Structure formats: C-alpha cells, structure tokens
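hi! just following up on the protien thing from before. the input was this:
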Amino acid sequence: MKVLVTGSAGFIGYHLVQRLLARGDEVIGVDNLNDYYDPALKEARLARIGDHPGFTGIRLGIEQRDALEQVFIRYRPRRVVHLAAQAGVRYSLQNPHAYADSNLVGFVNMLEGCRHHDVEHLVYASSSSVYGLNSAMPFAVGQNVDHPVSLYAATKKSNELMAHTYSHLYRLPTTGLRFFTVYGPWYRPDMALFRFADAIRAGKPIDVYNHGRMQRDFTYIDDVVEGVIRTLDRIPQPDPDWDPAHPDPGSSPAPYRIYNIGNHNPVELLRLIEVLEDCLGRKAEKNFLPMQAGDVVATYADVSGLMRDTGFLPQTSIEQGISAFVAWHRAYYRY
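and the predicted 3d structure came back as:
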C-alpha cells in the first residue's frame, strides 16, 4: 500500500514510517524540518530511514498548497496519515500565527488533496488537549470539548470539525486520534521528560509546575504507533446507530471516527521524575513553580472505543517506557 505520512521527520512520524516500511508499505514522507526544536534531531531520524528503497522523502510545508497538490498528483497515495502540525501548548502563547498557518491552512490543504485524489482513508493527529476545562475523568470521546485552554487545543478541535465536514459532504473517510502525552526513544526535546533528563544529567535544577501536583496519561511510542496502524487499516463506516437527537461526537452518519490513544493509567509528575532518577542513577534538584497558562492539571484517556473497534489496548508501563527512553538518550548523547 502507498501511504503518505506528513511530519515524517517528527517523533511519531519517524516511528510510524519505520513500522509501515517494515510491513512492506511504500511511504511518501513530507516534512519541512522547521526549527521549532533542533532540526539536527529530525535529520538524524531521517538518516535512519532515508536510504530505504520504499521511502521517498519530500521537504515541504503543508501550508504550501500548490506544492502539496503536486505531491498528491505525482504519488497518488491510497491512504494518508497526517501528523504534521505546529506543536506545543506554551509556544502558542508567543507565536499564534504559526498555528493558523500549519494547523488550519495546512489541514485544509490536506483535506482538499485527499478529496480530489481519491484517498480512501485520512488518519490525522488530534490531541488530548481538546478536553480543555473538562474535569470528568477519564476523558471520553463522547464528552463536550468546546472549552479549550490554548490556541493549540483550539486548532486541534477545529481539525476534527473540518474533517467531519469533508466526511459528510464528500464521503471522505476520516479518523482523528487524540494522543495522550506520547514519549519514548527519539523523543521531542521540548517535552518535559526530555528536558528533565538533560537537566539531571547536567546537574541543573528542573522546573516542576503546579508543585508537581499534575497527572498525565503517558503513552509509550510503540503503543501509539500500533494504534495508528490499526486505525489506518480500519476504514470508518457511517454509524447506523447515530442519533441526531442525542449526537455522539465520536461517530457520525458520515464515515468519521474519533479515538483516544492513551495508556489509561495516569501517572503523577513526581512519580515520573522518580522513575527517571532511578534510570539515570541521579537525583534531581526540583524548582517548584505554580501552574502555567494554557496547561491542565490532569489527563486520563478512556480508550474503550479504540479497544472495541481495533482490539488494541495501550499498556506499556511508565517504568518500561522511561527505561527505554533513557537507554536511547544515553546512546544518542554518549554518556
């Protein structure tokens, strides 16, 4: 199968491309390798897959409409996994236009490419951040998500609405995946676990927000990729039981689905730090700080829909996952 993967030099994209190539798919990877974080890490990821005969890498921003259209015309992908986006909750407070360009304009370009070139399934990255001010745990796709607390979250909610419109009007099958705090080898250096590891290794203090009273549904990268693969292989059908008097946000009379991909096991931030300290063999000096704007206290995924429809339940423990991350971190930075 020929699969177009955007964000192919990113953390999730790189691991997904590896899995698709390993099972024999042909992959067209699109990434602009921007400098939101160190491009050298993105280049290092691409170097590990760039010579594979089944991989074609294209350096391109998804907001470049005409160039992206040419990719669809030339390569004719059967299915698309759209992971490219301007990431980061806190960065959206300083640079909102980057989110409009990539996450809104870029997403329309992807929808149009899929619509006009007979793509049989579009899988795209949403985010647990769409749950915003919700406090009912675990977060379920049937909940209202109309109160985001960051522009990043608002763009991801917008993506889900835009995708539904294309599923409804043009019968384009779309599946949105709400990822919950993905981590693992080849991780993003802007994320807390990576920053903690760098600081502890260098003997520097780490900033611990909300005085450590935060929980995240940390989800290991291999579990996420397995969830993406299983949803990619399952083209959504219209839900015959969908009731317009009691609409289910996770499905539709159109070929449209939303799933959570999380570990279904939230971990307190202080426990994450403790496991990281054990793996590094060093203690952290903690700088306790108040809550940051745009952040949430806890995330916790209800993954019953993913399990029901694909038979998959993410289950890598935080101890296993952090151990694998630290092993990679040590090897990559040679310490």
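The longest strand covers residues 121-127.
The mean pLDDT is 95.
cheers
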